[in-house]
Design goal:
The structure is a homodimer of 358-residue chains.
Chain A: E1 2-5, H1 11-18, E2 23-24, H2 35-41, H3 48-51, H4 54-57, E3 58-65, E4 70-72, H5 86-90, E5 98-106, E6 108-109, E7 113-120, H6 124-136, E8 143-147, H7 149-159, E9 168-175, H8 177-192, E10 197-202, H9 205-216, H10 218-225, E11 230-237, H11 243-255, E12 260-266, E13 271-278, H12 283-302, H13 318-325, H14 327-340
Antiparallel strand pairs in A: 1-5, 2-6, 3-4, 3-5, 7-9, 7-10, 8-9, 8-12, 11-13, 12-13
Chain lengths: 358, 358
């Protein structure tokens, strides 16, 4: 239940290859993502609520360091207590410590059965509360995604659909047929206790694919609303218990903005995205998009969250790291960077803010 | 669903505290283990097959570095892509990089229902094959532990029981009542397809406790067989597909030894322990115990495994690290160690073999 790949393979290509074996790699970020990039950014996706992130699904990797040495970070065993966790050090290092050349991935069995469900709510808070209650119920839900009414409107516009333009939760339950049904009923009950309505679910493979398409094409649906605009996609993550509050605070700001903004959350992880559409030729709009992004990052940090749930730091999020992690953590990172890349040749100018020194 | 603790609290004490909240910390190593030590050694236990190891269950931690600086390694969010994974760097560093002073742990809901099952097999290979088939079936088993016939004999001697002295698997299935039963039936069928017999299971809390006691007290049962002896407890881990072979190779060696040796495996992870009993006053026996340990580590390394699945490195396993990881990986660890502890004051002489230099 593992596979060794080179970094340039896409996760979708990999899963096509694995399907005849009844196995899959359980991460589903954006469709173009490659395994190497997924490692470098410590990414995740909608399945993380059950299967974890890149952090949990890489057994070992090969990395070429700045001095040309090739390191294999671990054995093929699922568990090891053999020294420093170099695998996890490289995952999320965004190319600043080395170039990943090979990855051993942990695979999962394709679920025997699954049910996809959808439910409407009067407010985003109701939807968030149901996501949290589902997590607290002990059900190991496979996906729980939250879309706000603006996102649903975008989907209607893009696909010529007629979905109720209200906050919506989408679930996936997996397991045996009986257990998938049982989970569906449990969550239907939870939803009804939080003003949920129009709970629908699908079991037929084509019907499930159609239903889930709604979520998968959310970003492109946004562009359908404003075809010549760019999108600033925000990404923050907070403790589960703070998600409802984060979304409320953010919605107030987003709804009163002149820009069109949609909300998509991996609700079971407390991970929250906004798609902010702006005219790239209008400097005022670009600044407003940045202001909204800034607002949400600070709201998340105030709620003990992180400025980046799964998208990485790059250059754009360096400015938030000191507030999130503190200077001591950044100095520690810089020491490690200096030890492994003394000449600063590996993806310079990224990840560690330039003002950090030790 | 998280809790902040100081490192000296035992996991059992913590779980007593959490029980009224319906939550627990899902790692179960030896009974005396404290959270700090569990972090430092990257330990796990029988529940890792479902819930993961320390690696997966720590959200952040506070560590005091060699220079006195206090670092908090991350926010309270479940997922983060904010820079180097300092949390995972410290976990498993065995005190060589800093002193852990505070840990934020990820908690799970206490399962609604559970079933404990036990089954006998004619050979250890049959038992291992059933463990593997159970993992491959997609069931997220909560525990699957393998005991060999010598271990069962020890349990009989210690507890005055009359269990068949044959290779035995013990399972725990969790979820809703219906799903727990469903999993039990699926695995019963798998067991019967691999010469399994005497499949029994318990649902009543007291009966489950009694049944699981067999596994929990395995080590002390060994001492009952040889009350004045010491035990060398080995710990290796291999890819799941190599477990049956590792156990076969090891059993040949163990059975032909003059010493009493028992096998206990966290079979779902490929993690395999032997308890080798020896007279501490008999140098020949001590050397034989070491020889057996050495044999099993090398067998595991030959099967792409690790010399230490969950017990750490300390001094005893340093000699295997170069064969397992290669000199480049060890030099990388040394560089990190030198960067964070230039004066070598943090638990000197441990983890990184002394001959490694860069």
């Amino acid at each position: 239940m593992d596979v060794v790949v080179e970094p340039g393979i896409g996760w979708m290509e990999l899963n096509e290859y694995l399907e005849p074996y009844g196995l899959f790699f359980p991460l589903d970020p954006g469709p173009g993502a490659t395994i190497g990039g997924m490692c470098a950014t410590r990414c995740s996706g909608s399945l993380a609520v059950r299967y974890g992130t890149m952090r949990e699904n890489v057994i070992n990797l090969k990395v070429v360091l700045a001095n040309g040495e090739v390191v294999k970070t671990g054995s093929r065993a699922r568990k090891s207590a053999a020294g420093y966790d170099l695998t996890r050090l490289i995952i999320g290092s965004e190319g600043t410590l080395g170039v990943i050349t090979e990855v051993t991935l942990r695979l999962q069995k394709i679920p025997e059965y699954s049910v996809v469900a959808m439910c409407n709510f009067p407010t985003v808070k109701d939807a968030a509360d149901v996501a949290i209650a589902t997590m607290m119920s002990g059900i190991q839900v496979s996906r729980v995604e939250l879309l706000d009414e603006v996102q649903v409107r975008a989907i209607n516009v893009a696909n010529g659909k007629n979905l109720p333009e209200v906050p919506t939760l989408m679930f996936e339950f997996i397991g045996t047929e009986a257990y998938s049904h049982e989970q569906t009923l449990i969550v239907q009950k939870i939803a009804s206790e939080h003003n949920g309505s129009d709970f629908v679910f699908a079991e037929d493979p084509e019907a499930k694919k159609e239903l889930w398409k709604i979520r998968k094409e959310a970003l492109w649906a946004c562009f359908a609303m404003e075809p010549n605009f760019e999108a600033m996609i925000t990404d923050v993550c907070v403790p589960l218990s703070r998600l409802a509050e984060l979304i409320s605070r953010s919605k107030k700001e987003l709804d009163s903005s002149s820009l069109v903004c949609t909300v998509i959350a991996h609700a079971g992880d407390g991970n929250f995205h906004t798609v902010v559409l702006f005219d790239p030729n209008d400097e005022k709009q670009r600044k407003e998009a940045e202001r909204l992004n800034h607002f949400m990052v600070h709201a998340a940090l105030d709620l003990e969250g992180t400025c980046t749930g799964e998208h990485g730091v790059g250059t754009g999020k360096m400015k938030y790291l000191e507030k999130e992690l503190g200077m001591e953590a950044l100095k520690t990172m810089k020491r490690i960077k200096a030890a492994l890349d003394p000449n600063g040749i590996m993806n310079p100018g990224k990840l560690i803010p330039p003002h950090v020194c030790f």
